[in-house]
Amino acid sequence: MASQDDARSLKGKVALVTGAGRGLGRAFAERLAAMGADVAIHGMREHGPAEYGEGSTLTAVAEAVAAAHGVRTIRVLGDLTQGADIARVVETTTKQLGPIDILVHNAGGDIAAKGGKPDPNDAVGIREEDVRAVLDRNLLSTILTCQAVAKEMMPRRQGRIVTIGSVAAFKGRTNGSIYAVAKAGMTHYTRCLADQLRSYDITVNCIAPGDTRTGRFMGTRAVDQNRMVEAGTLDRIATVDEVARVVEVFAGPLGAFVSGQVLRVDGGGQCWAA
């Protein structure tokens, strides 16, 4: 059984979690806070948590996480496809909480330029504006955010970076193809960044979830109710907690010598290499 000291193994650390207002992002923030880290809760919109009924405001989420886990939190707004916004998010976090020790870059999604899913959403028919929106939201935001945080970590020669990918990256698909391409790109960027940061003692890893019971997932498609069980089979839709707990390995003491890795969290739905 873990001791109380083990449970608070990130006490004194500062984490930035992007896209943390709801769904997996909030769950990652909760996990890190439970381990003792102070957390910057990032979102693109103050009322984003209410979009799929998982909260009210980003401010309220930050306050709830702080109250539940006895840590400091702040809420930071910004469009992570814009370098100036990213710089402000990093600067605000550093000024109010301290230098960033842990980045969990969760922001992204298969979202069209005008919101919602692209329609059409296949490899040939998707509109140019939606191609750019999906690539920017997922791949570009990953590169720019990781660059900004890595530059702050490198002089201190310490840090943990965790990107949130998707099993979509590892299989050709007609629907959601540009999202899959973007996640494949960010997965390989994670490996490239890990290679560069080895000598700085900074680990860089990727969590690649499969289908997960977030508000967005459940609210944007028909769901097979047979896959909504929570035990007895791995052929099911994951709970948010089953994915979020993996961040404890990559961000915590157990992950000190693990870098450049991509961990699928999909109940074995993809049993092949790479």
TrEMBL record:
<dbReference type="Pfam" id="PF00106">
    <property type="entry name" value="adh_short"/>
</dbReference>
<dbReference type="InterPro" id="IPR020904">
    <property type="entry name" value="Sc_DH/Rdtase_CS"/>
</dbReference>
<protein>
    <submittedName>
        <fullName>3-oxoacyl-ACP reductase</fullName>
    </submittedName>
</protein>
<dbReference type="InterPro" id="IPR036291">
    <property type="entry name" value="NAD(P)-bd_dom_sf"/>
</dbReference>
<dbReference type="GO" id="GO:0016616">
    <property type="term" value="F:oxidoreductase activity, acting on the CH-OH group of donors, NAD or NADP as acceptor"/>
</dbReference>
<dbReference type="InterPro" id="IPR002347">
    <property type="entry name" value="SDR_fam"/>
</dbReference>
<comment type="similarity">
    <text>Belongs to the short-chain dehydrogenases/reductases (SDR) family.</text>
</comment>
